Amino acid sequence: xxxxxxxxxxxxxxxxxxxxxxxxxxxxxxxxxxxxxxxxxxxxxxxxxxxxxxxxxxxxxxxxxxxxxxxxxxxxxxxxxxxxxxxxxxxxxxxxxxxxxxxxxxxxxxxxxxxxxxxxxxxxxxxxxxxxxxxxxxxxxxxxxxxxxxxxxxxxxxxxxxxxxxxxxxxxxxxxxxxxxxxxxxxxxxxxxxxxxxxxxxxxxxxxxxxxxxxxxxxxxxx
Length: 223
Fold this sequence. Notes:
Helices cover 21% and strands 26% of the residues. By secondary structure, the chain is α/β, with parallel strands linked by helices.
């Protein structure tokens, strides 16, 4: 859509690095439309853990400080984690004092990732990677190899973070593409035993969070 203006932020040394990643991701081998063929205007910017992405009545921008922000501003904070090969960014999106934490491609540490617990403290919704069952993760599920070190969590790991961070709700996602609906339901049941306010994400899920105004739309893709 030519009239659409996209702001694209991501990890990397320079905006050119991010652009090259996007161009490769949308090369002919993987996608029918190239980045250049997409007619929208694009502002691509690399961001660091110390920075904030701010969206308010003035514009969308990256800043180093949270001072003098409008109370109506959408503020995105970043946690740079090494709990996945190559590293990963985890985001906390805050608006009018309500927060959603998006923690994908992260693997639980022994005793939990304490930095993630602090980052997610009191969030209204925690969306957390829970790709594997405990048996799969440990190599005890017939036909599945151990996935320790792959950079993805179990429902137990996600529940422990949610409980320690005292979040309002836990949404499990990044389901393993080989899992059936029954296996995903078992993941949900496991989480609910440790953190009752848990649910497994599914395509088209809308979370009407009891402490968040309006609706939060989630897409429960496999990546």
